Amino acid sequence: RLEAGAVFDTNTVGTNITVQISTNTNVTKLVGDSAANYILSFSNRPETASDINPRPVYVIGDFDAADKIYDCTNTAVISSNGLTLSNVASCDLTNTNRLALDPAAVFATSTVGTNIEVRLNTNPAVGANLSTLTGSSASNYFLDLTNAPTSSADITCRPVYVVGSFTVLEKTYDSTNTASINSNALALSNV
After folding, report:
1. What is the percentage of the chain residues whose pLDDT exceeds 90?
2. Residue 35 CB-density burial (10 A; 0-12 exposed, 13-18 middle, 19+ buried)
3. Distance between CA 107 and CA 110 in Å, rounded?
């Protein structure tokens, strides 16, 4: 009887990768009462093909987001980062091949408010700030933000300033300080 193991031609993510019977005799071997009567030959080994799919990694820990002044975007700045990855293969935790998270966050809204939820983002449709994986093995993983930690911060009102010039009409004394604008070249800055 044959106990067989198989090996991919590569250990990285891909499609239609060649898979062959392993030549490691600790993995592929003859077993049973008559196994000693035979010698296993690995010439003309059958092969097939299969895929290696990206491994999900998850974000754990916590982060703080900075408050910001309204700027029409939902982009958030991470001010304190205590985030790490889980479900990383041990071979990708070494210094030479370290998988790491480059976190980016977005506010749940781009409008003024307090205690607004801030979450990590990988979706360009949600915001331009995108979290990514870095390291030489990053393409073997995908970032799953299900149950990822969130934070909160404020978006405060943006100050606008009146600039330009204007003139007013003269008036006859009427015990008020109301003036009527005659010509208006006023504008707002910092909009």
Report:
1. 75
2. middle
3. 7
CA–CA separation, 114 and 110 (whole Å): 12
Structure tokens at 36: 């000693």
Which residues, in sequence order, are bridge partners of residue 7? Answer: 20
Alpha carbons 1 and 6: distance in angstroms, whole number: 16
- Work out whether the CA dihedral 155, 157, 159, 165 comes out positive or negative: positive
- 40 neighbors 21 (Cβ within 8 angstroms): no
Other Cβ atoms less than 10 A from the Cβ of 146: the count is: 7
Buried b / exposed e over 42-62, threshold 16 CB at 10 Å, is: eeeeeeeeeeeeebebebeee
d(CA 21, CA 23): 6
Whole-structure pTM value:
0.76
* Residue of 60, 62, 103, 78 lying closest to 153 (CA atoms): 78
